[in-house]
Design brief:
The chain is mainly alpha-helical. The protein has two domains: 3-74; 112-146. It is 66% helix and 0% strand. The protein has helices spanning 3-20, 24-30, 35-41, 52-64, 68-74, 94-108, 116-145. Helix 2 crosses helix 3 (35-41). The longest helix has 30 residues, at 116-145.
């Protein structure tokens, strides 16, 4: 395939990706290309790394006139969709399940407000910590000034 045909093929592939709102990885899977090969397709510097077999795959899709998804379905490669597992993988005792549910509902509750005494203790501890930092800064200043 010559460079003009390669450029036209790569442009059609990019337009299809944008039109169908597919990631490059998924689009590559539709025509049986790995992500690296899709990257090569979009960079003229690396076209030589993309062998004739892979150019032929992209060209076969272009000549089909189908969308990437249609081509994928008709040529045996169906898009992978995430499956939701409906049954649990392990059996759980009902008692353990109830305990876990209770723990989760307790976590969702709003945190309790601190009492006045707890707040005062917290603020005094913070003040002591900050005073220690101020004292350390004073020592450093005195050292560098004198």
């Amino acid at each position: 395939m010559n460079e003009i045909a390669q450029k036209a093929t790569a442009e059609k592939f990019l337009l299809a990706i944008e039109k169908e709102h597919l990631s490059k990885k998924v689009a590559g899977e539709c025509i049986k290309l790995v992500p690296a090969q899709v990257s090569y397709l979009f960079n003229e510097k690396y076209w030589s790394r993309l062998g004739n077999t892979y150019w032929d795959r992209v060209l076969a899709w272009v000549n089909s006139g189908q969308s990437l998804k249609e081509y994928s379905e008709k040529h045996g490669k169906v898009l992978i969709q995430k499956e939701v597992i409906s049954k649990p993988l392990v059996k759980v005792k009902p008692e353990a399940l109830e305990i876990r549910k209770k723990e989760l509902t307790e976590r969702k509750q709003e945190p309790q407000r601190l009492t006045t005494g707890q707040m005062v203790d917290l603020l005094l501890a913070e003040k002591a910590f900050l005073q220690t930092k101020i004292d350390a800064i004073d020592v450093l200043l005195n050292h560098y000034i004198s």
